[in-house]
Write a structure and sequence with these properties.
Organism: Rhodopirellula baltica (strain DSM 10527 / NCIMB 13988 / SH1)
CATH topology of the largest domain: Spore Coat Polysaccharide Biosynthesis Protein SpsA, Chain A
Radius of gyration: 26 Å
Strand order of the largest sheet: 3-10-5-11-8-7
Number of helices: 15
Helix content: 40-55%
InterPro entries: Glyco_trans_25, P-loop_NTPase
Number of strands: 18
Strand content: 5-15%
CATH class of the largest domain: Alpha Beta
Number of domains: 2
Shape: elongated
Protein name: Glycosyl transferase family 25 domain-containing protein
């Protein structure tokens, strides 16, 4: 157990909260290197605390190599244990593949939206990149030597801590076995449990100085991509009322993106990042994407997982609106699976076509303008892709909004929408959503 001499308080606190029964030998305290008291190399840019952490982990590894110790478990003194630690640890160890060289008991999965942990068995996953070093196990002399070579290699990225540098090592095996890439560099087999066994205690960090109010457990392998959190896709062609619905959801507290834009003066409810992504892969008024299905699925999933994480932080749900999503709904489903929810905004297609043609006529020469034929082909394509998907996937939850009903009976429609979203907005948020609906929004039928 790594502990600074000047932090005896953390040593005592750590010992008091050890699980009973304790599945390992009696913990041995290792006097950690105090970054404040040593000189860091001129090329080190990550701070004194991070230097001390790196050197402490390296010294433990060196000690084991020199003393012919072929396995060890290391805890930092802010490691806090989850419920049923011993039982869940035994489940994890029993399922670890025979080749394991390193196993994290606690940490944080990075880049999980784009590279989700790969399931090996019920309780074991192969991670892409793990952040944090407060609890992990190392086994086998060859794995330990590989780890040592990597930690003493001089190709560290600027401002990287030890956990960032270890993350680069972990990626290699994932890239080779999961992504099928030709990786020539050394790697070791790294695994994590389906749910973290160890979190970080609510103590002040020796490295960043922050303090939290409760033990923190980060995203689990089982749910690194927030697959249990719903995502609400607002689907409808251009000029179908989707902007109005998206802004209603925004007023209700749904996380629709970090920066909203769009054509409507009252707010289009379109996340700028999503709009840029959509236009990059299918420039208006195109009807088919210019990238592969797998690539588009991954791009959408990566963007959405980040929004889910932000929504989870804010204790709400996430959603998004952009007309292209009608065309991409199969890709959404491929990336999100059972977490996809659809809000289908429905308006007479002829009225939507005329409205888009009218907008184009007003803005000739702009990128979002098209000729009459292009407008009609695009609108029908978007509608058909949405409707065909809904018809072919009866298990995907769908909430249908007739645009005419929304502008005529906003209180009733919004009340039903709130129930579908599964949220509890305040009365002020509900009133704000109702007031956003303009009853005059009925041009072209």
């Amino acid at each position: 157990m790594m502990n600074l001499d000047r932090r005896d308080d953390r040593m005592q606190e750590w010992m008091r909260q050890l699980p009973d029964p304790w599945p390992f030998p009696e913990p041995e305290r290792f006097a950690a290197i105090d970054g404040r008291r040593v000189a860091t190399p001129p090329q080190w840019r990550a701070g004194n605390g991070a230097w001390g952490c790196y050197r402490s982990h390296l010294l433990i590894l060196e000690k084991c190599l020199l003393e012919h110790i072929d396995s060890y478990v290391v805890f930092e003194d802010d490691a806090g244990f989850g419920d049923d630690f011993c039982e869940r640890l035994q489940e994890f160890i029993a399922e670890l593949p025979a080749d394991w060289g390193m196993a994290y008991l606690g940490g944080q999965h990075l880049y999980a939206g784009k590279n989700p942990p790969h399931k090996v068995s019920e309780h074991v996953y192969r991670p892409y990149n793990v952040n944090r070093t407060h609890a992990f196990m190392v086994r086998g002399r060859e794995a330990m030597k590989t780890l040592y070579r990597h930690l003493t290699w001089n190709d560290w990225h600027t401002k990287h801590h030890i956990d960032h540098h270890l993350g680069r090592l972990i990626q290699r095996r994932y890239q080779a076995l999961v992504q099928g890439k030709n990786i020539q560099k050394e790697s070791i087999a790294v695994y994590t449990p389906d749910r973290w066994l160890v979190g970080q205690l609510p103590t002040k960090s020796n490295i960043c100085g922050r303090k939290w109010s409760q033990t923190r457990f980060f995203n689990d392998a089982k749910n690194a991509d927030h697959s249990d959190a719903p995502f609400f896709a607002v689907l409808g062609p251009h000029r179908a009322g989707t902007s109005c619905v998206a802004m209603v959801m925004h007023h209700l507290g749904v996380h629709m993106g970090n920066q909203l834009g769009g054509y409507e003066a009252t707010g289009g409810g379109e996340a700028v990042g999503l709009a840029q992504l959509c236009e990059k892969v299918m420039r208006f008024p195109a009807t088919d994407p210019n990238v592969s299905d797998d690539q588009l699925t991954q791009m959408l999933k990566s963007w959405i997982v980040s929004r889910k994480s932000e929504a989870n932080r804010d204790k709400t749900v996430s959603g998004a609106k952009y007309p292209h999503l009608c065309r991409f709904v199969n890709h959404l489903h491929a990336g999100l699976g059972d977490s996809l929810r659809i809000i289908s905004v429905e308006r007479d297609i002829e009225a939507s076509i005329r409205s888009l043609q009218n907008r184009s006529e007003k803005h000739r020469g702009q990128w979002f303008a098209a000729n009459d034929e292009e407008c009609e082909v695009l609108q029908r394509s978007l509608r058909d892709h949405r409707d065909n998907f809904i018809s072919d996937h009866p298990d995907v939850p769908v909430f249908r909004i007739e645009f005419a009903e929304l502008v005529t009976y906003p209180e009733e429609v919004i009340g039903n929408l709130v129930e579908f979203l599964g949220i509890t907005p305040t009365q002020d948020e509900i009133q704000s959503a109702i007031e956003h609906v303009n009853p005059d929004l009925r041009k072209f039928g």
